[in-house]
Design goal:
Helix content: 10-25%
Bound molecules: adenosine-5'-triphosphate
Family: Belongs to the ABC transporter superfamily.
Distance between the termini: 43 Å
Strand order of the largest sheet: 6-7-8-3-9-10
Order of helices and strands: EEEHEEHEHHHEHEHEEHHEEEEEEEEEEE
CATH architecture of the largest domain: 3-Layer(aba) Sandwich
Structural class: alpha+beta
Shape: elongated
Protein name: Sulfate ABC transporter, ATPase subunit
Organism: Rhodomicrobium vannielii (strain ATCC 17100 / DSM 162 / LMG 4299 / NCIMB 10020 / ATH 3.1.1)
Radius of gyration: 25 Å
Oligomer: single chain
GO molecular function, one term: ABC-type sulfate transporter activity
CATH superfamily of the largest domain: P-loop containing nucleotide triphosphate hydrolases
InterPro entries: AAA+_ATPase, ABC_SmlMolc_Importer, ABC_transporter-like_ATP-bd, ABC_transporter-like_CS, Mo/tungstate-bd_C_term_dom, P-loop_NTPase, Sulph_transpt1
């Protein structure tokens, strides 16, 4: 089911929660709505679901204006972080619920309901838990039940709002892979709300980055990560180091050093260079555009990071750079750093002006 969102806006009192949101969701895709807390993700999801109404704009389900479709007619399956299962019902009964409450003429005979629920429980790998009650399940198992329950009604659209938000990091990771695989088999149009960039990057076909009720960028995970449209997206997705630079005489100036680039540059003036820590290459002090003293070295799992205090045109700036495995530095060492891949954004402005890969 294809969903088109057109010029949607929503206010809560004076607060603008959504501003002129336009979005096309392709049939069968898994789309992630990603953004900081309060950026409007849940509001957008609730309007798509028919649980809330927009002040302006429309939502179309397969070309039909959804204003004419109530929640039930939209055939939407939900999985919410806090969408509790019915505590007094077993897993089996929870999953069967949506099928049993259908109007009599649409309801399947009991033996078909039993067959379908069994198949769904197998599908989400919890067939052994059918007779348990929600209290007797782990958080991850509960979310599998919630998903089986959402799928029971054969939804046209699956809406997931931080479905793994309450789970620990390891379970989250395994459940999101599982969701990715499951979606590969089902191909039901799905919208996943998350504020976890890693989750969105790993699971989604496309990501919508939201900030302050607006869409900042829509793209594949690769596009969002490698070609962030503006400084907001760069900063929100992954780690970033921000360096004040100057554009002058057709070059990028970091303090008194010029950064080699063949790219077309924006107009002269102050700008900001955004670079991922792993794109800062360690090298000869005399040749690198950035120099500084290593303050400390840390290991996080398999990765090592060095905090480098840059001598930056009189200012001290602390940056965190990833250390390649073969590079050994110690606190106190003087090192050179070169931004290998970076993007330049006008100072204070949201536009991306240029990017470079040396
Ligand atoms: N019923 C409401 N009344 C007043 N303000 C609301 C209401 N619902 C949401 N808001 C406000 O609208 C903004 C967007 O909320 P929304 O829940 O869509 O954000 P979100 O991106 O999903 O955030 P989170 O990740 O924290 O869930 C927030 O500032 C929120 O406080």
């Amino acid at each position: 089911m294809k969903i088109d969102v057109r010029n949607l806006s929503k206010r809560f009192g004076n607060f603008v929660a959504l501003k002129n949101v336009d979005l096309d969701i392709a049939s069968g895709e898994l789309l992630a709505l990603l953004g900081p807390s309060g950026s409007g993700k849940t509001t957008l999801l609730r309007i798509i679901a028919g649980l809330d109404f927009a002040d302006g704009g429309e939502v179309y389900f397969a070309g039909e204006n959804a204003a004419n479709l109530n929640v039930r007619k939209r055939h939407v399956g939900f999985v919410f972080q806090h969408y509790a299962l019915f505590r007094h019902m077993t897993v089996f009964e929870n999953v069967a619920f949506g099928l049993r409450v259908r109007p009599r003429r649409e309801r399947k005979p009991e033996h078909e309901i039993v067959k379908r629920v069994k198949r769904l429980l197998e599908f989400v790998h919890i067939e052994g838990l059918a007779e348990r009650y929600p209290d007797q399940l782990s958080g991850g198992q509960r979310q599998r039940v919630a998903l089986a329950r959402a799928l029971a009604i054969e939804p046209n659209v699956l809406l997931l709002d931080e479905p793994f938000g309450a789970l620990d990091a390891k379970v989250r990771k395994s459940l999101r892979r599982w969701l990715r695989d499951l979606h590969g088999e089902l191909n039901v149009t799905s919208v996943l709300v998350t504020h976890d960039q890693e989750e969105a990057l790993e699971v989604a076909d496309r990501i919508v980055v939201m900030g302050n009720g607006k869409i900042e960028q829509v793209g594949t995970p690769e596009e969002i990560y490698n070609e962030p449209a503006n400084s907001f997206v760069f900063d929100f997705i992954g780690e970033s180091v921000k360096l004040p630079v100057r554009i002058e005489n057709g070059g990028i100036w970091i303090g008194s050093r010029r950064l080699a680039t063949n790219d077309e540059l924006p107009a002269s003036g102050p700008a900001r260079l955004f670079v991922r820590p792993h794109d800062l290459t360690f090298g000869e002090v005399s040749e690198a555009p950035l120099q500084g003293a290593v303050r400390s070295v840390r290991r996080v799992g398999a990765l090592s990071f060095a905090d480098v205090r840059l001598d930056y045109g009189g200012d001290d700036l602390l940056v965190e750079a990833s250390l390649p495995p073969e590079t050994i530095v110690r606190a106190g060492d003087l090192v050179g750093l070169t931004p290998r891949r970076y993007r330049i954004y006008e100072d204070g402005a949201a536009e991306s002006l240029t990017s470079a890969a040396l």
